[in-house]
Each structure stands twice: as C-alpha cells, then as structure tokens.
Amino acid sequence: MEFLRRRFLCWRNGLESEFSSAKKLFEKACHSVTQYIWVCGCERFEPNFTRWNARFVFLMVNICVFMAVSFWSLTVLWGQRVEFIFCCVTIGIGVQGFVKAYMYSHDTIYELLQYNLKRFENTKGMPEIHHSLIDTASLCTASVKLIGPCYASMGAFTILISIVISLYYGRFELPFGFYLPGLDRATWIGYLLNLAFHILQVFEAVTGLLAADMCFFNLMINAIGQLDVMIIYLKKLGNDELIREVYNAPWNELPIPAQKALGMLLQFAQNPVILSDGFAPIDLDSFLEIYKKIYSYLAMIQNIN
C-alpha cells in the first residue's frame, strides 16, 4: 500500500506540473470520460447532448430486443432449473442497463458537472484548497484510466471464456443464458449467429455500464472532495468571526427547513470535529438533494470567510 501511495503521489505531482490549474485537469478527465462513452451515445458531460442521437437510440432499442429475446428464452427454458436461473440473471443485467441509461442521461448530471466546474475555480486562492482540488481532479483522472481498461478486459474475457469452453469440451456454450428464437444453437450456424448476437450485447453492455459508472465515480469523488474543502474552510474560519455572522444572520427570514438544518449544524459544531462516513443505496433525487446541501453549506462558509 505504501508503494502504491508513493506512486500515486508521484503521478499526481506530475499532473500538477503539467496543468496550470485544477480546473483544466478536471476538464481533461471529463473529456476522457466523453471519449470512452461516445460509442453508446451517452456523453452526458457535453452541453449539446440529446437522447435522440442515433447511438443512444440504438442502445435503447438493443436493450428492448435483448429483453424480448430473454423473456422468450424463459418460456423455452421453463423446467430447466440451472439454465432458467441463468437466464433470469441476464434479464437483471438488462433491467439494470435500462435504468442506468435513463438516469445517467438525465439533465441533472450535466447540472452537477457545472456545479463541480464552478467549485474548481478556487476564487479564494488558498494553497490548501488548490492541493485539495488537484487531489480530486487526479482521482477523477485515475478512475477513468482504471475503469476503462478493466471493463474492456471483462467484456473480452466473457466472450473468450465461452469460446474456450466450447472448443475444449466439444459443446457449444454461450456467454449468457438466452438465445435467438428459430435457431438451433447445437449447430455451427445457429451457434455462430447466437454468438454474434451475444458479442453485440457484451459490447453494448460494457459501453453502457462504463458510461454510467464513470459518471457515478466522477460525481462521488467530487462529493468527497467537497468535504475536504469544507474541512479546510472550517479550520481557517475564526471563532469570533463565526459567532458574529451567526448572530447577524436573518434567521426569521429563512424557511423553516433551512432554520432546522442550520440549527442542527450549529448544535453539532459545539462538539469536537469528528467526521464519519457510510454507504447506503439512494435514488438520484436524494443524491441531488444531498449534493446541493453540501454546496449550500460550503457557500455559506465561503461567504463568512
């Protein structure tokens, strides 16, 4: 672990010397994400993105065809427990792909990206903030460089392992649990046509899931980076100045939810600074609300400072 940490710091310092600002490094990482996911038409980081582009429409149509073929295969495989369950698993992958394609092509993703770009401007010019932003942009860049090859290797391995098993054991094996109707998969022609359809599904699945997961990691790394920036501002904030601003705040003009949120924040501020984290599944609306809450607190601290 120490070796990896040193290698990352060396690589991170090289990026800092190459790019004049953290914002340019982050923009480069976002551009790399767009290059990877261009194939499936889900380049949501671009301002002129539309769901009606030909590549994204083909992705959605392909998912619908995949689901139809999979449900047909279920009717044929009824009674064959192992193959039936395997086909159900592949249907779950299709449902996941459809949901991710819809959610991560939403306009909200681009709005969050614009929020992050504004945060990378660092108008205060503080060295600590600059280093924190460089770390965030470097992690975004590292995630792109790691996730892309991993997903491509996983897709290639899925295809190759089925071909190797077919050649080694002398029986036709497909990567997934579905097959095209009207084709005998026990013959060479039927197997090759089914394999070609499976290769198309692997290609679309890898590019589609890659697009969603790259956007997810980009947003999550930025959310963690915001907490680092907030800690830096809190440490720089003077106690007397904070008390003065709290008393000068027009509490009666704030909406009730904002009063409760700030009251809770001040209550916890009376205790020693202890940060904790955890993981739990949330939907996109909750994620966006939490994201905006962090930004509102950060903006308040910046104004006070």
TrEMBL record:
GO terms for cellular component: plasma membrane. InterPro entries: 7tm6_olfct_rcpt (IPR004117). The chain crosses the membrane at residues 56-77, 84-103, 151-170, 191-210. It is a multi-pass membrane protein. Keywords: Cell membrane, Membrane, Olfaction, Receptor, Sensory transduction, Transducer, Transmembrane, Transmembrane helix. Its main location: membrane. The keyword Zinc-finger does not apply. The keyword Membrane applies. GO terms for biological process: sensory perception of smell; signal transduction. It is found in: Cell membrane. This is Odorant receptor. It comes from Culex pipiens pipiens (Northern house mosquito).
